[in-house]
Amino acid sequence: MSGEVWSGVANGILTTVQLTVFGFALGAVLGVPVMLLRVSTWRPARWTGRAFIELVRGVPLIVWLFLIYNGPTQFDPSLGTVFTSWRSGVAALGLVSAVYMAEIYRGSLRAINAGQWEASQALGMSRFDTASRIIAPQVTRVAVPASTTYALSLIKDSSLVSAIGVFETTYYATTISSTLSSATPFVVAGVYYIALTIPAAWAARRLDSNLRRKVMR
Amino acid sequence: MYKKIALAGVLLLSAATLAACGGNDQNAPAANAGCKPAHANLKTAKSGTLTTSTYTFPPFTNVNGTTVTGAEGGILKEIASMECLSLTGQPLDTGSVVTAAQNGRADIASGNWYCTAARAKVVDLAGPVYGDQIGIISTNGASTFTELQGRAMGTVDGYLWNEEFKKIYGSDLKVYPTPTAMYNDLKAGRIEVAADSFGSATYANKQNGDKWKVVNPAADSRVAASKQPPQVCFPMSKNNQALYNAVNEDLKTLRDNGKLAKILEDNGLSGSAANTGELQLIQ
Amino acid sequence: MTGIWQDFVTHQGQLIDGLIVSLQLAGLTLLFGLPGGLILAIAGTSRTRLTRYVAIALTEIGRGTPALVMLQLVYNGIPVTLSGLLSAGIALALTTAAYTSEIMRGGLQAVPEGEIEAASALGMSRWDTLRDVVIPQGLRIALPSLMSFSVIMFQATSLAFTIAVPELMSQAKSIANSNFHYFNLFIIAAVMYAAITISASAFTDRVERRLSRHV
């Protein structure tokens, strides 16, 4: 395992982190409207939300990547400058994250006692105020452990983006492996991914226990 | 809570900025102003640049970041410089290489794509660039397709003989996504023989200390490519006729002045492969 | 649209064969992965420090390594040469074991403490308690999450094309590489994957509702 392989594969680490952060941020934001659709009391909205979630979750990320990267240009070649490798990658990660995050938000919403809606109503608060000032902060807190677990898995899912030509960790591992005709670069990539996830997991646990302490107080 | 919202806002904002910056600079000026292109007013995906969508397939294409070398890389570089363009590689999974060129995201696809009639329906095939042959790589130098029967065998996705092989060898045949994956398996003993482009097989053999034998098999009516040697083309979009014509004419120039043969030889291929004759699409 | 249908009709045999391989691979993954996850879950709560640390280390490695990298490692990185299908099964099983061990640990911990105390008051050994009281209930609690994770693993089999397993994704790519109808074939693959996963997750929902009825 020469130093060249280690430094070569390391070229992609920053991009891996960027892909994960932007993909997750996009998903965390888009997840809110998707969740609102999914829990709506109006049936057509609820069904739209549900169909969207099922469809997006039903197709593997690798297929989404190929479709988002190659699909739009199929209809208008000039879209190629809009859907660059990097943007298509972030869009695919964001799309898939959005539905997973929507489901996480929904699960957290269910964990909040319905009595709080009634109590707030009794206190004369509007539905919007209740949602934004009473329910949302709690949902966010409850959703933290599941969201961080998801964000961690996204670090690894970002490896698929190499297929559409984004120069991240797995991309470098693949090219170096082809040139050297050896599997070593993948061992190196594995080490880097673990090195990324373990501290991230530790930070996530800290965040979770901090939040929990705040709630208890 | 507000801090968190603020944080999310900042993240989103930076995502937007980054996405905006991530785009390619559309109007980069041509590399050097004094250069006179062989064909005037060519439009490329990115002005000043000839973009090739490709993947690593030595000795034809070697990709390192956006630099493409190897035989096809060398030929494209010559074509680019004749048109006063600089060559940039867009490395992709084989599932996106051709689509990228077809859609005009890249100008031209490279990586040992054979000229076939089915492909010509979807894209314009510039070429023939050079002639290729089937290479059978094995430990004992098997030279007929019949000899290979009953042995664990590998081929690479995309070769036009794959369908015919499936009929002959059935479940003994494994189709690999990349030549690298196939040669790893040949080394590991998962397969005993492999079919590949002759040039790629020779290259892989050299990389592994010449322990195998590479043979061009005897013609066999069951395998069309053994009777009619395949030609290699550059798949291009059907929507940029000017560029397609230019590439074809530039190829002719390179063939006539001997540069094409030289590039092939420099990359360990036979120089005679440059004498392709007319384009013959494989049916 | 007609082109897509045309491509499906022409190549349906190859595509369906691919789907069957995908399902077989998913089966193999779960067959090795789920028992692995249970073992890791139990070992993770062991009183012996060494066992616990080994289990935690394996879980972290399994969860930290992308499936794509894991596939390459098992296929090319170990001295034993296994077939593509088996390698993919093992690689994805390692990922499955690491993830499901967390889900199962959650399930096992959700079994009320009182029941374990009651079992020991009845003179049951620690192992018997685990086997007869904790595991059956814990797994039942974990079942819906395990099922949705299985659906995710079915999708992950689409990565096995990188090591020449002839599953759905690799068949779709292979066909597209010869006729260049990439977009059509990826749409077909998407629909076929969605058909399986959507019906599987509908089934999961039913099981979940059924189980929660008695809680």
Automatic annotation (TrEMBL), chain A:
Topology versus the membrane = Multi-pass membrane protein
For this protein, the record's Pfam families field holds: BPD_transp_1
Chief localization: membrane
User: Which branch of life, at top level?
Assistant: Bacteria
Q: Where are the transmembrane segments?
A: 20-39, 51-71, 83-102, 160-180, 186-204
Annotated ABC transmembrane type-1 domain residues = 13-204
Under InterPro entries, the record lists:
AA_ABC_transptr_permease_3TM, ArtM/GltK/GlnP/TcyL/YhdX-like, MetI-like, MetI-like_sf
Keyword Transmembrane on entry: yes
Which keywords appear in this protein's UniProt record, sorted alphabetically? Amino-acid transport, Cell membrane, Membrane, Transmembrane, Transmembrane helix, Transport
Compartments reported by the entry? Cell membrane
Signal sequence extent: none
PROSITE patterns found in the cross-reference section: ABC_TM1
User: Which family does the record claim for this protein?
Assistant: Belongs to the binding-protein-dependent transport system permease family.
Protein name (Swiss-Prot/TrEMBL): Amino acid ABC transporter permease
* UniProt organism field: Planosporangium thailandense
TrEMBL record, chain C:
Transmembrane stretches, start-end = 20-41, 80-99, 141-163, 183-203
Keyword Magnesium listed: no
Record bears the keyword Membrane: yes
Q: Name one Pfam family in it.
A: BPD_transp_1
Q: How does it sit in the membrane?
A: Multi-pass membrane protein
Per its UniProt record, what CDD domains does this chain match? TM_PBP2
User: What are the subcellular locations of this protein?
Assistant: Cell membrane
SUPFAM superfamilies listed in its UniProt record: MetI-like (SSF161098)
Q: Which residues form the ABC transmembrane type-1 domain?
A: 19-204
Which of UniProt's keywords are assigned here? Amino-acid transport, Cell membrane, Membrane, Transmembrane, Transmembrane helix, Transport
Belongs to which family?
Belongs to the binding-protein-dependent transport system permease family.
**Can you say what this protein is called?**
Amino acid ABC transporter permease
